[in-house]
Amino acid sequence: MGGPNTSMTDRVRALVAAHRGDRGALLPILHRIQAEFGYVDQEVVPVLAAELNLSRADVHGVITFYTDFRSEPAGRVVVKLCRAEACQSVGAEQLVAHAEQALGIKLGQTTPDGSVTLEQVFCLGNCALGPAAQIDERVVGRLSPSRLDALLAAEARMA
């Protein structure tokens, strides 16, 4: 992927400047970077470390610890399948297996065409309607393999 472009580096420095006086500024800055660019390019790690007087290892550790941060762009549609106990008890693992097979990817991956990123979460607060998922920003429940396929097909038509 190479280094970040100058505008990304400049934007990261501007975000750091906006949060420089904040205690624990790294997390809000990372969230802003993710919101703006869709991911946190690993090439901005040294920039953040230098600007915030942190080690590269500290910055990298925070990025990799929190599952919300991506190190590469997500697909056009992000599907987060709930794997918490309540959803597991009503078929979440079978839904995960179906999604992986249907999309040809594993959890944490994006389809080669960049259309779908498949992720796992451990509770969406929709326990009574499991198995549940979040498709982009919309939480859906009572998913079956066929309903998931239909929702993904509808998303593909809208893209």
Tell me what you see in this structure.
- The protein has helices at 6-19, 26-37, 45-52, 56-65, 85-88, 92-103, 145-158, and strands at residues 77-82, 109-110, 116-121, 133-135, 138-140.
- The chain folds into 2 domains: 6-65, no CATH class; 77-158, Glutaredoxin (3-Layer(aba) Sandwich).
- With 159 residues, it is an alpha+beta fold.
- The chain contains 7 helices and 5 strands.
- The longest helix is centred in the first third of the chain and has 14 residues, at 6-19.
- The chain has a 5-stranded mixed sheet with strand order 2-3-1-4-5, covered by helices on one side.
- Helix content is 47%, strand content 13%.
CATH C-level label of the largest domain: Alpha Beta
Q: From the 3D structure, determine the CATH topology of the largest domain.
A: Glutaredoxin
Structural domain tally: 2
Largest sheet: 5 strands, mixed
Given helix and strand content, the structural type is: alpha+beta
Q: Segments where pLDDT lies below 50 for 5+ residues?
A: none
Residue-averaged pLDDT: 93
Report how far the terminal alpha carbons are from each other.
25 Å
**Total number of beta strands:** 5
- How many helices? The count is 7
Query: What is the CATH architecture descriptor of the largest domain?
Result: 3-Layer(aba) Sandwich
By CATH, the superfamily of the largest domain comes out as Glutaredoxin
Radius of gyration: 18 Å
In the sheet with the most strands, the strands line up as 2-3-1-4-5
Q: Helix and strand succession?
A: HHHHEHHEEEEH
Share of residues in strands: 5-15%
Share of helix, binned: 40-55%
Give the CA-based shape. Answer: elongated
